[in-house]
Amino acid sequence: MTREPQAAVVAGVPVDTRHWIGGERVASAETFTDISPIDGGVLGEISRGTTREAAAAMAAAKAAFPGWAATPRAERARILHAIADGVEKRIEDLAIVETADNGALLRSHRRGVMPRVAHNFRFFADRLLKLGHEDFETRGHTNHVSWDPAGPCVLITPWNAPLMLATWKVAPALAAGNTVVLKPAEWSPLTASLLADIAAEAGLPAGVLNVVQGYGAEIGDALTSHPDVRRISFTGSVPTARRIAASAAANLTPLSLELGGKSPLLVFADADLDLAVGLAVEQFDNAGQVCLAATRLLVEESVAEEFTRRFVQKASALKQGDPRDEATDIGPNIHVRQLEKIDGFVERAVEAGARAVIGGHRKEGRYYAPTLLTDVAQNSEIVQEEVFGPVLTLQTFTTEAEAVRLADDTRFGLAATVATGDPERAERVSGQLVAGTVWVNCFFVRDLQAPFGGSRQSGVGREGGTWSFDFYCDVKNTVAAPQGWKNHG
Asked: Are strands 391-397 and 296-300 parallel, antiparallel or unpaired?
């Protein structure tokens, strides 16, 4: 549709809905409507980017790259810390806008997510200043390893944790000396626009960070196929990743892909059962819209009945409703299409013989009841495919070997969680699980120093800590001979 984009106002917080390209606000001829999942209200008309805006953003990023790449590390780090300062000053605004835009809990945004956004910038700023390897000798020759900025980066981010996951990519890309074109998800674009304002106020040079919005595949295809792109990082679904990989193939552009998951939670009979139940119920966080969620509960048969009883009791006490309410535990699912997708998965599973112990139905608005399905087959759709909603399955096992076999029997390998009271079993089982991250008697403990990514169809590559710089840089080794130096002085 053709409408004039303007500032959205979310609970008194103005958000510019135009693109941010080359240090300026740029409107598109067409817009798309951004809807809040909380009540279906219109948040704003968002500039809808096309190949024209993609080309302009890439041109701005390319033009700004030489200057930013040549900026001393200490100065780049200073600006990243200034961006973190700006985020911290606007935590309340960012939390309010993000909750309205994607429906996640306001209390979580205030206390956890937005502080983590600031930490993303501080961590990579500090890591940049420590980045380096000691020189080493090879037959008298000196080897010196350096990280050279790669160039313009295209970063495509999802809607389930918009700003946190965007800055998880933006911060290391900028720290490495690259310029960025950020394309936020069309269902939750608003905080990316606020980030552009914060970065400009912090002194980030024009063109170093560009934000372009779009609806559908047009702008994404234009960005990922552009010949000037030197890195592409994407978080999202496997089908979209395949499209991006095909688009990038012509230019052999390096990719980092963090994709879906169908992660298991293995509960052994020797586990602290209350702890295990708490971990299981925690998987309903963000209305189940978490790629890392352990949606497959694998419980040792001897404790399955008691586990299920305690799980139902604890899960039934969760309060579902308006995410702005401090007492709410589960908010809405982000979009009607997502809600219909979740409902379709559950309906087909029940038709195939699954039993809903709790939930199994839609509620008024964009809410889906927290659901636990039993009597599911290992090869069934509900066990094998990512639902991305508050839907868990429960299966039982009798031996450790069977638990591992069931856990590894999907096409995914993003994460796994193990609940056991035996440290030797924990080490043994963790070593056999196909996953980028394994949690033992805990969940979602993340340190930015650690590598993050998935195995199998859960992703390609690792980011975090030095691994991020390995990806966002061209790592160079310079080898110098001991002879050949002229005398100076």
From this structure: parallel
Report yes or no: 462 and 477 within 8 Å, Cβ to Cβ.
no
The tokens describing 416, both together, are 């796994």
In the set 98, 258, 300, 386, the catalytic residue is 258
Considering 153, 291, 386, 473, which one is annotated as catalytic?
291
Q: Which of 195, 261, 258, 291 is nearest to 463 (CA)?
A: 258
Beta strands at 136-138 and 141-149: parallel, antiparallel or unpaired = antiparallel
Full DSSP string of 227-270: TT--EEEEES-HHHHHHHHHHHHTTT--EEEE-----EEEE-TT
- CA 362 to each of CA 102, 340, 344, 359, 381: distance values in angstroms, whole numbers, following the listed order: 18, 9, 11, 8, 19
Residues 6+ apart with CB under 8 A from 414: 258, 259, 260, 261, 262, 263, 291, 292, 435, 436, 437, 454, 455, 458, 459
Q: Which two tokens stand for residue 75?
A: 């100065």
Q: Per-residue pLDDT for 6 more than 70?
A: no
Fill in the amino acid letter for 292: L
Q: Which helix (H) or strand (E) holds 351?
A: helix 336-351
CB 153 within 8 A of CB 229: yes
Give the amino acid at 287: A
Write down the H helix ranges in 212-300.
Answer: 218-224, 238-249, 273-281
Angle at 370 between CA 369 and CA 376, to 5 degrees: 110
Catalytic residue check, 291: yes
Structure-token pair, residue 26 = 């740029």
* Tens digits of residue pLDDT in 149-200: 999 999 999 999 999 999 999 999 999 999 999 999 999 999 999 999 999 9
Q: Residue 2 pLDDT more than 90?
A: no
Q: Answer whether 0.90 is exceeded by the pTM.
A: yes
CA dist 292 and 158 (Å) reads: 14
Whole-number Å distance between alpha carbons of 120 and 86: 13
Q: What angle do CA 393, 443, 322 make, to 5 degrees?
A: 70
216 closest CA partner among 194, 195, 235, 240: 240
